[in-house]
Design brief:
Blueprint: E1 3-7, H1 20-26, E2 31-34, H2 42-51, E3 55-61, H3 80-97, E4 101-104, H4 112-128, E5 133-136, H5 152-162, E6 167-172, H6 173-180, H7 183-190, E7 194-199, H8 215-225, E8 230-233
Parallel strand pairs: 1-2, 1-8, 2-3, 3-4, 4-5, 5-6, 6-7, 7-8
Helix pairs in contact: 2-3, 3-4, 4-5, 6-7, 7-8
Length: about 250
């Protein structure tokens, strides 16, 4: 079976943030990811990780614009100075939190200039922190309208242009199914470029086992591919309590 991690931004959200770490450990997870850990001091999250013996797999970047802007702007032309400033802030968090991966969000924009901007920004981030691994992730246009990175072929094209060994693809079964109609086929085609895996059912992003994706088959394919990273549960439980949605862990 793959090594499963829990996304604490979505799972165990019936609990206060700092209580979710103990709940994840009690449920059998050995690692977690946190999409936006910037509201608390990094040392508080680090203490919760250490107290529960958890590894931090991934965080998102850049930090959100608390003035009301949309999250992510890695591909937005004209925002390069702010991108660099905010990535420096993320890297300061990373010094304390030690995430295995930082997911760089592209933002809501389109066109060739956006692609060029994203490539330059990713190259800058990769060169600024050569020992840190970064990811980009295609998001589907139904749940994320107008998001720049909305196709796996486009993501791989961007990665080819970036041409940095510490920048790779983030695969999400929910988005893969929604974009291309076959999450399994997307995995088979792009697995060689994948740094990180996330799972959720389509079309409602609930727990694995619902919807059209055959997760037992997908988990077997992940195992057989030689992928050794974490597989993060990033879904909204259909149950009142997260523990009741975890039956998929024994598929």
């Amino acid at each position: 079976m793959p090594r499963f991690a829990a996304n604490l931004s979505l799972l165990f959200d019936e609990l206060p943030y700092l209580d979710r770490f103990a709940a994840a450990a009690a449920a059998g997870f050995e690692a977690v990811e946190i999409l936006l850990p910037y509201e608390l001091a990094a040392k508080e999250t680090r203490r919760a990780l250490l107290a529960n013996g958890l590894e931090l797999v991934l965080i998102n970047a850049p930090p959100p614009n608390y003035a009301g802007g949309q999250p992510g702007y890695g591909a937005v032309p004209g925002g390069e100075a702010r991108f660099q400033s905010d990535i420096r802030r993320v890297l300061r968090y990373a010094e304390v939190l030690r995430p295995g991966l930082i997911h760089v969000m592209a933002g809501y924009v389109s066109g060739d200039e956006a692609a060029e901007t994203l490539v330059r920004n990713l190259q800058w981030a990769a060169d600024a922190a050569p020992t840190q691994r970064f990811t980009i992730e295609p998001l589907n246009p139904i749940s994320q309208p107008d998001y720049f990175l909305n196709d796996y072929d486009l993501a791989v094209e961007i990665l080819d242009w970036v041409d940095r060994p510490n920048v790779g693809l983030q695969y999400d079964s929910f988005h893969a199914e929604m974009i291309h109609g076959d999450a399994q086929a997307v995995w088979e085609q792009f697995r060689a470029r994948v740094f990180h895996v996330q799972i959720g059912a389509a079309p409602d992003r609930s727990e694995p086992g619902r919807g059209p994706i055959d997760f037992q088959r997908l988990f077997n394919a992940i195992d057989q591919s030689g992928y050794t990273g974490w597989v993060s549960a990033e879904y909204t439980p259909s149950t009142a309590r997260t523990e009741a949605s975890l039956h998929w862990m024994s598929l």
